[in-house]
TRAP transporter small permease (Aminirod propionatiphilus), 158 residues
Amino acid sequence: MTAFPLRRLAGGVETLSAVVASSLLLINVGDVLFAVVLRYLFGSSVAWTEEVARYSLIWLVMAGAAGAQSRGDHMALDLLGPRLPRRARRTVRGLVLAVQVTVLILLVVLGAKNVAGTWTMKTMALGIPKAVVLSALPVGMALLLVQLLLGRATEDGR
């Protein structure tokens, strides 16, 4: 597979991540504003607004991670790497990639196991399965893993 289709796929994952994260941000802000208006103008509140705010924020962070990865907005420690000789730099980058991939695979697998056991449990106010909320971790980390690998596959030999 050539680099061009991989770049298009990486761009698609980034766009998907951005659209989902943006939509969830709008839902979150709208929900919080709705709760504030209800509380201060009408003196009452609705129980489900807190859950919507919390769960949309969790999904927002997990879905947005892939987009941040593709733009290089994740935190990185580049104190030693740029000072190393080219060959050592490649070795270190390979080791870092191996650690990242291992951690992300573990998060996807263990997160999926956690989700599997929670389909019968319901949230307090919304009454949706807890698995819907907990799915944010394996889905977000799988997107992050795909974006990380696509990004490395399309790099210009750095």
About this structure: The longest helix spans residues 3-42. The two ends are 19 Å apart (CA to CA). Residues 121 and 129 are 6 Å apart (CA to CA). Helices lie at 3-42, 48-71, 86-116, 130-134, 136-153.
